[in-house]
């Protein structure tokens, strides 16, 4: 490799290892770091090719092993190395952005399941499940902040909340993996594409449709019907936890889909009103995170998938 290529190769690897170390050492950075975890090696693979991308993933894992030990090296290999390399290969081979996102979600889910199974088999610990002790510590820190403001929470209440949190996270693990895989795939795609577009990319630069025109197919309602049937099964046979787990997880994934559809509809109307992009981004994040509004948007998303509200409103405007 030439000097310039070697420098770039090392830069992306060291950035990847640095992000991994920051995610472990600085707790509040972990969610953000995990979302952007695949980006460095994804860019390395896109810019320097799959062979050098594979070498970079192996070298990053070796460096992590030397600095942090075997457990950290394996975690890095999955979430940072293998995932970034696979995203890079998919970006080079996919025909369009939608094809990349679908394949990237499947890849991300598979790698997360691999990580989870190896941890469970080797040390009996699921890295994606919050422990009662961790939940207790988290709630205690929140309780401490509330007590400074004059609100106090008893230890019995904290313990009950911690147990409920652990139970919820355990039951909702499948939907959490799916939704997080979709999120890190989209974030990685957006970040990598923006960088490649700015620096110039010799290959085919993938793109997604404008967010205001996103639309999920109507056959997704078959999944909604299945979720309702499973929910009825859970109520008819409450002793069978499988029905409850499947119905809750499927409904949570569908709620995410309907929310995205509703946010797309919101973005479309904000664009039609000529709002600045910064305002649209702020309002979209607010609506996604504020529960009452996100619920309404999820309902609008259902109607939009079935009735195509944008098309109907356009026809009414033309008729006027």
Polypeptide structure, described:
With 320 residues, the chain is mostly helical. The protein contains 14 helices and no strands. α1 packs across α4, α3 packs antiparallel against α4 and α13 crosses α14. 82% of the residues lie in helices and 0% in strands. The model has no long low-confidence stretch (mean pLDDT 83).
Structural features:
single chain; 320 residues; mainly alpha; 14 helices; 0% strand
User: What is the terminal separation in angstroms?
Assistant: 65 Å
What summary fits the major beta sheet?
A: none
**Outline, from the CA principal axes?**
globular
Cα Rg: 22 Å
- The helix/strand class is mainly alpha
Strand content: under 5%
Low-confidence stretches: none
| Helix/strand order | HHHHHHHHHHHHHH
Helix content: over 70%
Mean pLDDT: 83
Helices, by number, come to 14
Total beta-strand segments: 0
